[in-house]
Structures are given as C-alpha cells and as structure tokens.
Amino acid sequence: MYRRIHAALAQNPPIGSFDVFKEGKAQNFFESQEAIIALCTYFQELLKNIQDLDEKQLQGELFKLLQVSLWGNKCDLSFSAGEGSSQKSSPLQCLEDMVPYIIVNDMERLWSLLINAKKRNTDKCNVRVDIILDNAGFELVSDLVLTDFLLSSKLADEVHFHGKSIPWYVSDTTKNDFNWTIKQLQSANHMWMSRCGINWEGNLKKGVWVYHDHMFWTLPHVYSSMAEVAPDLYADLQKSNLLLFKGDLNYRKLTGDRKWEYTVPFHQALNKFHPAPLCSLRTLKSDTQVGLKPGQGEQIQASEPEWMVSGKYGIVQFDATP
User: Fold this and answer.
1) What is the mean pLDDT of the chain?
2) What is the widest separation between alpha-carbon atoms in the chain?
C-alpha cells in the first residue's frame, strides 16, 4: 500500500516528493513538547558531569536511556490508526514502574558488549553502533538522545542511522523527518532543546553521525534474505559493533513474521541473520514473540488475552554473533 501511494505521487512531479503523513508526524512532535523538553533538559544536565561518572553510574544512565527509547516506541501512528500517540508527560518519571513489563531484558548483555568494546578500542578501530529507526516524533528524539549518550560517554565513536527511503507505515522516519526534527530542536525557544539540536547538527557535520536510507528497508523481504537481496547493505552492517533494531515491524522481519512458540531461542528465529551483534528494542504490537522462559507467555495470556498487541509490554532482546 505504501509503495502504491508513493508511486501515485511520483507520477505527478509537482507533488512527487510530498509526504502524505508529514502532518501527523509533525503533530506527534509538537504534542510531545513537554516530554521532549524534560528529556533534553535531563540529558544536557547529565552531559555536564558525564566525564565524572564511574562505570556503575554510566551503566545506570545507559539503562535509563535505553528504557526511554524502548517505551518511546509506543508513539506509533500506524498502531494508533492516526489517533493521538504522542508522549504527553516526562518519560523519565515512571521508568521504575515499567520494568516488570519488560518481559525480555538483556540490558546487562548490551552493556557488557559496549564496555568491553570500549576497553578493547584503539585509535585505529572505532566502535560503531547502527540504529535501524522506527517512528519519527518523540521516539526519534529518544533515539537521538540515546545515541548522543553513547558518543558522549565514549561507549561508541560513530553512529549510523538507517531510515526509510519513502514515507512508510505512517510515522516511520525518513531523511526529511530526521533533518526536520534536528532543525526544529535547533530553533526551539527552550535552551536545552536548542542545545541538543545544535550539537546533533554538529555530529552530522563531523561525520560521527551518518544517515542512510537503503531501499531494502521498504521491500517485503524478511531480514534473513538480506545477504542475498541486498549484499551491499549486509556488508555495511557487518562493519558495526552493535545493531539496534527499533520497533515491532523490524522485530517481525527479524523473526520471519512467524507465529513461533514463545520459548524458541531468538538466535534460532533470526534464521542465520547475524551480520553483527544485534538487539531489538520493541513494544509488543503483533503476535510474534520468541525467547521467553517456559510458561512466561502462557501466564501473561491467562490474565491478559491482548498482551501481544496492546503495546503494554516491551523487550530489550539481544543476540551476539555466533
């Protein structure tokens, strides 16, 4: 459907590059102002003392921003059928209360990978993190804060963003959304929002942030076919130390969009898609989930029949390269 919308517009050159979903994405951003201000303010205050944090404190801040990015994935216009899906309140206030709803929590494994890569790092070998983006609006801002933290804490030296080449699934991030968001933050009349935007524009100019929009991300293929269908993209992802896949659609494509038994290992469901260590940050909005403990899925199902599609539960699910 989204390819057909794009094709119809492409046949009319005056509106060939028009994004029919732009208004909804912009509305999500503006309606999330309070949350964006709270997040940017928290992050800029954190940056003042980031060099003084010990390893345990650094880990705690990473976990906090991972959770903000995870729950930011609730802001999805394709899931809400265009209804309000903005983040109205500070995303940092209720993180502790949300921890029980993270049904796969591999944040410790993620931390181990990043801190060990940092310790092994030499000037000749940068630590690279790639993030396969999902929604524009508040979720994108939470992703940008997370990746700036990785750079500022020296857990990563460069970040590569992967977005959609055409308007997709209503609120998915395109290059225009990415650049527009940074410009909006730069021109904001709030000091810390503006500071974030200026710094992020600087990251792009310095080349420590790089944006890509390979056509593969809008093709119907599951990711286990990437090496064959898009070998150039697969080879590029192999250069990464960590791949962060945001959102439900990316998870479905990672796992072949099959109705697996809940206890099937994530590694098995990936079906040999292992360009680099990878992690899914996703709130559940479809009935595909693997890597649960025996009985875990059935226990939730007994009290909440809609648990797999409600967006109430989330995962931070990691798989290392074999």
Assistant:
1) 92
2) 57
Cβ atoms of 173 and 249 within 8 Å: the answer is no
3-state helix, strand, coil in the chain (%, to 5): 50, 15, 40
Across 133-267, where does the E strand assignment appear? 158-162, 209-212, 242-246
- Work out the percent of the chain whose per-residue pLDDT is above 90: 81
In this predicted model, what pLDDT tens digit does every residue of 166-224 receive, in sequence order? 987 888 999 999 999 999 999 999 999 999 999 999 999 999 999 999 999 999 999 99
In 3-state terms, what secondary structure has residue 281? Answer: strand
Q: How would you classify residue 81: left for phi > 0, otherwise alpha for psi between -120 and 50, otherwise beta?
A: left
Nearest-angstrom CA–CA distance, 250 and 134: 8
Angle separating helix axes 191-206 and 138-152, nearest 10 degrees: 60
Cα 126 from chain centre: 21
pLDDT digits (tens, 9 = 90+) for 209-238: 999 999 999 999 999 999 999 999 999 999
Answer for the pair 141, 177: CB distance below 8 angstroms, yes or no. Answer: no
| C-alpha angle 113-289-103 in degrees, rounded to nearest 5 | 60
Q: Distance (Å, rounded) from C-alpha 190 to C-alpha 236?
A: 37
Question: What CA–CA distance (Å, rounded) separates 148 from 156?
Answer: 9
Tell how many helices (H) and how many strands (E) occur in the chain. 14, 7
Q: Is 55 exposed, middle or buried (0-12, 13-18, 19+ CB in 10 A)?
A: exposed
Cα–Cα separations (whole angstroms), residue 8 to 16, 77, 167, 176:
8, 22, 13, 19
